[in-house]
Design a protein that fits this description.
With about 425 residues, the protein is mostly helical. Helix content is about 80%, strand content about 0%. Helix 11 packs antiparallel against helix 12 and helix 14 packs antiparallel against helix 15.
């Protein structure tokens, strides 16, 4: 079926679908990094420690990663509109539970419910975009969708800190839960599903489309590839360390080493998602425009990312406020660029018949990485002792040395990534 036969591609309702789903996705990124700004509030409210706080924050990522295959299947069966709406109601319930939590245990349960709920947004939206927009528009629309999500990460810095100082962190999350309920109702009542058209299996987080009879065989094809595991390990480590900094420790770290207030520290933290917004399209365009070898670009990006951790870990005193802001901006750009180029590399080196399955199996890796590194760094900080509501400089330095060591390991592993397969060459099952 060709694009010009699809009524949905001309229906102005597609922009209603895009706007409503994008606004919901805004809160996906918001929740991903929101705990960084309210660390001191949570420590004081629950009289807890960094280990428990790291575990609580990580619950978002465990549930988010686990729910991806489920929402993909349900989107195929019931349509993306219903999945997004009902999962968003779950996210709203998680906000209310988090705001009401009397203990860190209940807060962890609320955080887990938030992760479960927002995990039902991205994959269904991929399908919705494929229903309503032409193939020639798909990448552009998806890029805009991702940009709006990262704006949520920006709002989860300084604006969230202002809201928390004005209304308190509990009232702020009640408000977020209410807005989420309104958006979930909008998705349920004011949007509709289109006809499935176009190819969505080449998109990073698209649901698996393989027939059940061949699913086990294709899974074995993917997981038997050393390149699949290599890409997953690098993605796990790089994204995990980045979001551990951005989403949990950046604001208190900056408050400690620079001696500044939370609002100003959150403003500096805000440059990380801005860097991601800039870096993802820039490195993607650079690679495609000049037909550069994606493996080599990734090696360069990981090297740049490793240098930023050197700056954050050892040179924070010399860099000062402006220098640290610049380093964090570059760190965000490098991460956004790596993700963009990595998925391009995967598309080049993976047979089309299992592209969707490969993406679905690989995509949980970065979120599991966030879970792991938030807990590890939390344990290190806890053992360093606490000074008031914050942790000492030595504690942050030791925690970030782990992130630096992981980045160095990623750099070494990136040299093992495969090069682009030659035209006409028979591809191995999965070269990723």
């Amino acid at each position: 079926m060709t694009d010009n036969l699809i009524p949905g591609y001309r229906d102005p309702h597609r922009w209603v679908v895009f706007c409503v789903f994008s606004l919901i996705y805004f809160f996906v990124y918001f929740h991903r990094v929101s705990t960084s700004v309210i660390v001191s509030d949570l420590l004081a409210s629950f009289r807890t420690n960094a280990t428990a706080l790291g575990f609580m924050s990580s619950m978002y990522f465990y549930l988010y990663a686990a729910v991806q295959p489920v929402v993909g299947h349900l989107s195929d069966r019931f349509g993306p509109r219903r999945v997004i709406a009902f999962w968003s109601f779950a996210a709203a319930a998680g906000c209310f539970m988090f705001g009401l939590a009397p203990t860190i245990g209940w807060a962890s349960a609320g955080r887990a419910l938030i992760g479960l709920g927002v995990g039902g947004v991205y994959v269904p939206t991929i399908k919705a975009i494929s229903q309503w927009f032409r193939k020639s528009e798909f990448t552009t629309i998806l890029g805009c969708f991702m940009a709006i999500g990262n704006v949520g990460a920006v709002i989860a810095t300084t604006p969230l800190a202002w809201a928390t100082d004005t209304w308190g962190w509990r009232s702020t999350f009640f408000l977020i839960g209410g807005v989420t309920c309104i958006l979930a109702l909008a998705a349920l009542l004011f949007t509709r599903d289109g006809a499935v058209t176009g190819d969505i299996t080449s998109i990073a987080e698209a649901p698996v489309s393989e027939k059940p009879s061949g699913l086990r065989k294709n899974i074995r094809r993917v997981i038997s590839s050393p390149q699949f595991w290599l890409a997953g390990i690098i993605f796990f480590r790089l994204y995990g360390t980045l979001v551990t900094l951005q989403g949990l420790w950046a604001t208190p770290f900056l408050m400690t080493v620079l001696g500044i207030e939370r609002i100003l520290a959150s403003q500096i933290n805000m440059v990380i998602p801005i860097g991601v917004i800039i870096g993802a399209p820039f490195f993607g365009w650079l690679t495609d425009r000049f037909a550069l070898e994606k493996r080599n670009i990734m090696i360069g990006i990981v090297f740049l990312y490793t240098l930023t951790w050197v700056g954050v870990t050892f040179l924070f005193s010399a860099l000062g406020m402006i220098g640290l802001a610049l380093v964090m901006l570059i760190m965000g750009m490098a991460t956004g660029g790596f993700i963009s180029v990595l998925w391009g590399h995967i598309r080049e080196n993976t047979p089309g018949d299992i592209m969707g399955l490969t993406s679905g199996l690989l995509n949980p890796a970065p979120f599991i990485g966030v879970d792991v590194f938030q807990v590890i760094t939390g344990i290190i900080l806890y053992r360093s002792g606490r000074i008031g509501d914050l942790y000492p400089v030595a504690g942050f330095k030791h925690a970030f040395m782990v992130c630096l060591a992981v980045s160095v390991a990623c750099l070494m592993l990136s040299f093992l990534l495969s090069r682009k397969k030659s035209p006409g060459r028979h591809s191995t099952p999965v070269r990723v």
